Every structure is written in C-alpha cells, then in structure tokens.
Amino acid sequence: MGMKRKPKAMGVLLLAIMMSLSAAGCSSGNNAGKNAEGNANSAKATNTEASAEPTAAALSADEPGWKIDTSPITFDWYLNFSWFPNKWGVDPTSQYVTKKTGVDINFIVPAGNENEKLNTLIASGKLPDFITLGFWEDAIKKMVEGELVLPLNKLADEYDPYFFKVSDADKLGWYTQEDGNVYGYPNSSSSPADYEKYGENYVSNQVFAVRKDMYEAIGSPDMRTPEGFLNALKLAKEKFPDVNGQPLIPLGLHEFTENGNDSLEGYLQNFLAIPREKDGKVYARETDPEYIRWMKALRQANQDGLLAKDIFIDKRPQMEEKIAQGRYFAMLYQRTDFAAQLGTIYQQDPTKTYIAVDGPSNTNLDKPTLDGPGISGWTVTLISKDVKDKARAIRFLSYLNSEEGNKDLFLGEKGVSYDTIDGKDQFKPEVFDLMNKDRSTFDKQIGSSFTFWMLQNTNITDQWAPKSVEPFKQLEDWTRGKSIGSSEFQQIEPTGNSPEGIIASKLKQLRGKTMPKLLMASSDAEFDKIWNEYLEKRKKEGEDVFDAYQQKKYEENKVKLSIK
C-alpha cells in the first residue's frame, strides 16, 4: 500500500515500533521519539488505517531511510560517459559505503558512442536501475515521455521522506516537469541562493592553458588578439616542431562531435564576453561579429598549418594521452578534464606544466565571462521503472545527496583516507600527496575525493576541501572573478521528440557539420560562403520556432529563479 501520512493517534504506536527497530540504526531513543512525534504532528488526520507495515512506520523526514535495511543488494548503474575508468568495490571508499549501506554497484559504461548506447537502451524499453547523464541530453525527455523512469518525489513520499530533507528545494523546483514530478537530481549544482552564500569561492572550469616552458621560450607573448594568437602558435611550432619525436599540436580543443565543439562554441563565446541576451531577448551569440572574427582567425591558423589533423578526430582518451605527453602547446579546454595528466606531468618535470594565461578576447579586451556553477549542475541521476528495489534505490539516492553521503565519498572512511587533524576533518597527508601525484592510482587505491561523482555536492564538501596546490592552483585562481552565474540560460533548448526538439537536433547537427568546414575553408571568402549557407539552412530548419521556444523558456526561468 502507499505510505500515507499517519494521524496523531498513531504517534505512540510509531514510537513503540521505532524503539523496537534499534537494528534500523536509530541513533538514540530520544531522537526516535522526536521523529515519531514530528511524523505524527505533520500528519493530516484523514486516514485511520493502522495496518501500515512496520518499516513504513519507521520512515521519517528526519532520519535516513537507508538505515531500515542494509542487507546486500547490487544496483546496475549506467553512466553515459565512455571515458569513466573506475569500478565500484575496488577501493576502500566504495567498499566502506557498501559495508555501511549494503549497496553494491555494477557500473555500465558505453564502450563507444554514448548516444547510440543510450538510444538502444531506451528503444529496448528496459533500463538499468540508475542512469546518470549530462543534464543537456535529449535522452532525459525521451525517458520521461516514454515513462521509463520513476518520479523521485513519489518514491520519496512512499519510501523515504528523508529525501526532501537532504535535497535542495530550489533544485527540485528547477527540475520539476510539466506533470508536477521530478525525475532527476543534479550533481555539482549551485542555485542563485548558493551564489549568495558561497559565491566568492566559485571558480570556473574553462581555461586557456599553455605549456609553460614553451610559452616562456617564445617570450610569453600576448595571445588576446587574433594576430598575437596566430603569431604565438607559429612561433611555438617553429621552435618546437616535435615533442619526443612526435609532431607538436599547436592548439588543443574539445572533441568535435556530431553536434559541434564545446571549445568553439560556449567557451570561445565566454572568452570573448559575448552577451547571452540583448534587450531582454536571448542573443544568438554565434552571429556576433567578435565571434566571426575569431573563427576566421582559426581558419587562418588552419591554412597556415597550425591546426593539427588530430584535433578533428581525437576523442577524450586520445587527448588525455597526448596531454600527458605534453604534445599540445595551447588548449582551450576545461581544467578538471586534464587534472590527472597535469599532476603526472608536474611530478615528472614542473617546468613542462600547463598554466592558464589570458586567451582570446574581444576588441575591447574585456575580461571573460566564464561559466560558474549553475543550478542545472553537470549530470542528473534518474531511477528506472525497472529498478530492482524502489525503496532501497530512493534511500540510497537520499544517502548520496545527504551531508553524510557526500562526506563518505569525498573524505572516505575515517582512519583510512582521512582523520581529524588539528581539530579539522581532512585527508591524511600521504593520501593528499598521492591524489596530487597520481590521480588514477589514487582512484583505485583510495577512491575518495569524488572518484564517484554521481551526486557530488561541492557546496557541502567545500568545508573539507584542502587548499589547492600547484599545478592545479594556478589554473583555478586564474578563473576567480571571471566566473558568472547564468542559470537562467540553462535548459532553454528544446529536447526530446517534440516538434521543437526535432528542430533543435537538426540545428545542432547542422552546426556539427559546419564547424570543421569553416575551419578548413581555403579563404575568408569561402568561409563567408559556408557561413551564409549555414544561416540560410538554419532558417529553413525552423530557427524561428527554436528561437521562440528559447525565449519563452528563458522568461520562465527568470520567474522560477526570481530574477528581474
């Protein structure tokens, strides 16, 4: 039966049951009494059934539901990231979580193209127990529309009211769908309220980095203008034609996908401080003259032999290998994506490290407006309708969302990876040392510091986060004061199989096809021709419908977030 709110008369019964459930891990009789009373008081006296099963009676908005049942269970957890290298249960941190909660995890990670794998799973109508994917993915809407995932709010009402205590009301509001339900919860999410509370600590992931020794060897040139940028790539290639017998790659970018290239879209536009809206209207940033000017500079770079073929075909694993070899001179990239490689390089030879410098800028040389944390977060996690055990699934999700779960996955087990040192819970020195020197070994031998990031909440874990050390600190510090909150522009693109969603997919694919062509154009005149054809095709594919949808969503977001 559904877990309904209990009337007052049941307070005594609840208390008796809770006392007898000491195995459920209630921390003290006192606490249990408080919970029972709280539960009873919040009850609406509408339903007098006293036949609720005892476990349901022990549920409380104030006590973790996972403590009710810690018998062994294994969940299949799909991560839509082919680069994810770790297995649960290999390291002491995940072993500790399993020992405590009873939950073991079998990760399912696609071998190649993520979208193909996920679409196959969706088409089969049967999904693994948990699914974690980027908040921007089309597949989320498809899973919700296809009723393949369960509303977290309903699972929580029935099996774990504690979920609402450890989940942020703003984030639940943000992710509430038209049917009034919430199907996914984000990680790394920061609301406008979080900005007020923690904002001065916020940094961005987006950097323009250069290999320090090479950059200094060519005179540490100013790379903020197209001329300075091209000249620096040219000097680097002349002075360092190869790295350990392999050709230098003058510029590294995010991978080119069927939908475009992150470095050449949002990143570059942020570096150029191109506004996201003008006069209250969402602005098509790619049409900005500053953006066209820089895309033409990159076309020139290609003509001058300064864009290596590698960058058009490499995926993240190949890039990581080439970063570790120090083969890139410069990169427009996200710093956390190459942190492991950076640590390794720094251990071998600190002079060959990568440092953040001022990169592409607009004509006024305004400072960049980089993405700070947003309310949408990075990934969202959903629970499948085929989940093995609804109660255990929502309770485990609540545990991961809670301060306790975040602490367990960030610091690990006390005495193993952290201790209370000088009155503060912090990583043991040798553990922190390994983390900075060899992240992939750390993941396998220790497994804390969010090796498992599915529900990481950096606002919670900031209290235990060690001060950044080099070589990571320089890159992080460079972004301070350049990061802005832009939550109101998140999730304004239509997704899924709606008419607007189909238009959005076509526009993305059109951009994906056009990007490399623009860079490979043989002249500025050919660039203009490709560009104008691209704009024409966008109109034909229904750009005006797309724009109207975005504008409407943007206005709704401002209301949701109370932004004037």
From TrEMBL:
User: What keywords tag this UniProt record?
Assistant: Signal
Q: Where is this region: Disordered?
A: 32-53
Q: Which InterPro entries match?
A: Bact_solute-bd_prot1
Provide the leader sequence positions. Answer: 1-23
What transmembrane ranges does the database entry give?
none
PANTHER family recorded for this chain?
ARABINOSE-BINDING PROTEIN-RELATED, POLYGALACTURONAN_RHAMNOGALACTURONAN-BINDING PROTEIN YTCQ
What name goes with this protein?
ABC transporter substrate-binding protein
Which lineage ranks, top first, belong to the organism behind this chain?
Bacteria, Bacillati, Bacillota, Bacilli, Bacillales
